[in-house]
Amino acid sequence: GTLFAKAGNPWVHWSLGNENTVRLANKLPYTNATLGATLLQLMLPGTPCIFYGDEIGLQQIFDPHEDRKGFEHLHQLSAMMWDTPHKPFTRKGIFPWLHSQSMPTNFAQLDIISKMAGLRVTSAAIYVNSINKDGVNKANAEIKYKENDLLVMQRWYPRRKSYVVVSNLGFVHISADLSTLLYGGQVVVGPTSSSKIETLSFKDISLWPGESVIVLLD
């Protein structure tokens, strides 16, 4: 509401991670948390920017023996990890400039984020920043619910499909009945890399910490 109250409806550049901050996977140490945060980011009006490695949950370098002591301010610049062992980041015997022990990553969530990026490209309700009617720009994003660390945002466009993102931004599992706000729809993306397309009722929303789910409304 604050953004769209300004003249000209500013186009926002959203960045969750960057070269100057602690990595997203270290800030959100929950299963699927980087996936959930990125799915929410990709539903926002404007332009999302994914810092390299956040799409696979890349963590900061692990330096237990302090081989890189004095470079703590650069520990977020981890060498990119690949899911093909025969194609490492560097040639055999050559270490990246900030090498470290192997770090956990989740390549399975890359397909989910790619699917969400594709949905954003093809869905006017998501990629269009606002609706222009009679020369006046109006918001096409609305926060439907924001209580107890549960966030529900709807995106729409006239005569097009409408979508909702439901995100658990808290530290505990959340179950909620939101049937007074929305009826139901079809899960199209998330909340985990193993999720399948299925029908969802807003009478029984259930998400683990850090999870987000994208729903195509009925």
Structure summary:
The chain is α+β, with helices and mostly antiparallel strands and 218 residues long.
* Overall SS class: alpha+beta
Mean pLDDT: 85
Number of beta-strand segments:
12
Supply the number of helical segments: 4
Largest sheet: 6 strands, antiparallel
Low-confidence stretches: none
Radius of gyration, in Å, reads 19 Å
Distance between the termini: 25 Å
Binned, the helix content reads 10-25%
Order of helices and strands: EHHEHHEEEEEEEEEE
Report the β-strand fraction as a percent range: 25-35%
**Shape category:** globular
In which order are the strands of the major sheet placed?
5-6-7-12-9-10
Would you kindly provide a written description of the structure presented here, covering whatever features stand out?
With 218 residues, the protein is an alpha+beta fold. The protein has 4 helices and 12 strands; from the N terminus they run E-H-H-E-H-H-E-E-E-E-E-E-E-E-E-E. The longest helix is centred in the middle third of the chain and has 15 residues, at 108-122. It is globular and about 60 Å long. The mean pLDDT is 85.
